[in-house]
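Why run this: before we spend reagent on co-expression, it is cheaper to look at a predicted model of the complex and decide which construct boundaries make sense. The entries below are exactly what would go into the expression plan.
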Amino acid sequence: MKLVTLMPVVEPEKCKGCKTCVRVCPVLAIGMEDKLAVVNLDRCRGCADCEQRCPEFAITMAKRPEPVEAKVDLEGLDYEKIAQLCRKAKFHPEQIVCYCTATRADEVAGAIMLGAKTPDDISYMTGIRTGCKVECIQPILRLLEAAGIEPKPVPGGWQWYGRTPTAWDIPEHVKQKYASRGFYFEEDIELLDRVVNAPLQGKE
Amino acid sequence: MRPPIAPIAPRPSIYGIDPSFVKKRVSELPGMTSVTLRELFPDLPPVIYPGDEGIVAVRRRTEEALKSVDMSRIKPEHTVNICSSHHGFTLLGGEPYAEMLRTIRDVIEERTGCRNIRLRAGVGLRFRETEEYIRRHKLDEYFHGKARGVAPVDEGIAIETEIGTLYGIKRIYDADWIVHAHNSDVREVHFHRMVDRAVKPFGMSYARIETRSTYHQNLGPRAANFIARSIFDSPFVQDKFAFSCFLTVVPHGILGVDADNDLYALNERVTEVGCRYYGKMMTLFGEIDECVAALDFPCPVVYVFSAGVIYANFAGANTDLFDLDSPLPAYTWYTEAFYGRKGYPLLPEIPKLNKAIRMCVHSYAWTGYPSAFFSEHIPTVVVGQEQAELFNRDPQNLNYMKHAVVSESTESAMEFARKMTGTEKILIFDGAPGGINLSPPLRDFLLAKAPEIDRRVEQELLPKWLKQRGVAAQRATA
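The model came back. Tokens follow.
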């Protein structure tokens, strides 16, 4: 869950229409009109990526008049199926997968069960990947893959490019080659597997 | 009683409060003192900076180190990217790192005739941070308009590695040659565990979000830094890699400059220096039984440091961060991830944060790194409503102030902490060069413990740490 308290404000006289903000926005909330950036505030999740990357410093972040809650309510969803999806993607259902918003794997799985098909859908619904914008793309892609969904990156966008290897994908010869250099592949897999299969703690 | 050491000054930044709001440094409070690191560990080697020679020493040592580097493949018509990272600019005010970067540029031009030399400066999670440093140190002028900050959300480039496709930042690699200009300060031991420390930026500040997420979510706490090695070893990077040049950093200053065409040879040297000297400081801090931690440095909460030890590592100093037999430190993102919905770890053996930190007084520290885990698990007092509001506006820290209280002033915050915790041991994370600002009871405690820590690290821990990493002990110096 994320409480969205900020919104971007574009200064038209500074915007040069370079589309950097369009390319980095994780929820695809920015478009161009008459060569100027225009933000769809209903979709924006206040991550400030546009503000941080605008080469012209044409965007500032302001407080929203009313905060907006981005949250998938797991009530009414089949939690057993949610847990299965998380564990198939090698996550404990209660594992935190976004350190900024404290979004847990089960909320992402819930978004997928409610119809999310892409990382931007999931960010829009849960708020994940709208804090630092850096660390949580892989859990999203792994959970989508576990659900049998193969999203395609936005053409020309820089939002994300693709799923990358996990501990379970490391080839045996690579593990052997570097075993004496401080990389504890097998031991970490054993730890991660135990976390994935640990009991649920339940509601807060 | 030794007076406190002048701490690193507050710095204007979009990630911190205006320096005018920093009314009082914690070290200025009555009764504070300092201890030098060489008082604690007399065998610490002499440093070149801070020193009598000033910043000139960094230029001289960089020039000397680069004499042994082969630059013959760089031709006058080529392009060169000197790749750097934000972290270097946080060391001793940033000027030593900036001067090393300037010198590398000058030596390349002088030896190769190449003039198209760019500076690329990667970041952590504060995408404009190196833009600020470039301006502050006038590096764009020095690089003739060719200095640029890059961020992990910028346009990427696929890199094929022996474990699969990973992604780098396109502007890092958009030259014929890249030079890896970094430093050996250990900083995030909780993440890299001092395994391939020198290689890390290839998986982090030079990398796209997909790669960095792989590091922090896909591989595990002791395998994570393999991402950096797999990118560095890729044919794509090897075809462009020219050489490395590092500030060799120890907890009390700059030991020297090291440069090599062979990054792994350099890595072995900095691994030993890091394990030995930072290992002693962290092990000593792990002995502290109770204290108030005071944050007072222009960096995000986790990165404020004392004696080269960042707050994030002090929060995990109840475990041996260098010991790879221990899978999870008390703080790392994998550990944080493994706290369940009821607020305790999913596995019973996952260590909790350092109980010796009875309270944290956040007098001055920046936003730009998700830090709510700390305020959630360590009682935290934030000084000033301006600072609290700044955290409430940071997309990475919307939950930080949910768990912290606000005090009007540094004086009242410290008084509150003393009364509530009952301890007179105060450890200040203000980057004091060459020493530690602290309270007299903690100074006496550390001085009494240090000799035994020195023996334990040299005779028991260091041999184990180096063996775990396949590094031969050489007693390396710069």
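Chain B has two domains: 19-44+279-449, 56-250. Chain B is about 35% helix and 20% strand. Bring this page to Monday's planning discussion.
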